[in-house]
Design brief:
Blueprint lengths: L4 E2 L2 E2 L7 H4 L2 E6 L6 E7 L2 E2 L5 E4 L2 E4 L8 E3 L3
Antiparallel strand pairs: 1-2, 3-4, 3-8, 4-5, 6-7
This protein binds zinc ion.
Length: 75
Amino acid sequence: MTTPAVNGKQVPAAQKLASEVLSGEAMVVCPKCKAIQSVFINDGMLMPTRKFQQRGNAIYHDCGSKLPCRIYRDW
Ligand SMILES: [Zn+2]
């Protein structure tokens, strides 16, 4: 089993980074409270929303979750 490397860093296979999505609409899912919202990502940067914010390459929900949200864009 191999884990894809992004910029030399190992990331879990199911975990996409905002910078990997690059641009377009994506769904973010909070792993703590299961909140789902569609967001826009422009050049790897999350377009700010009221409840989700980007820190580094990950997106966090404002419920206090320490785990970054999962990002989906394949539907
Ligand atoms: Zn949450």
